[in-house]
Automatic annotation (TrEMBL):
Name used for this protein in its record: Uncharacterized protein
Length: 63
């Protein structure tokens, strides 16, 4: 991800993770907190789509 994003629950940086669906063979990406049970996005086709999802959920980050 180009911008640093942080978990709204604990403040840790979100990680971009690659996700593979074993049933369909599709590969996608999601942003999630390293702490289990905290914030994570739905699976998106590209990292850019994950970034747009975060901007939609949290607003544009301050640069």
């Amino acid at each position: 991800m180009d911008q640093p994003w942080f978990c709204p629950h604990c403040g840790r940086p979100l990680e971009a993770r690659r996700v593979a669906d074993n049933a369909t063979g599709r590969v996608g990406f999601r942003a999630e907190c390293p702490h289990p049970g905290h914030y994570r996005t739905v699976v998106c086709a590209t990292r850019a789509a994950v970034e747009r999802r975060l901007e939609r959920d949290f607003g544009a980050p301050d640069a």
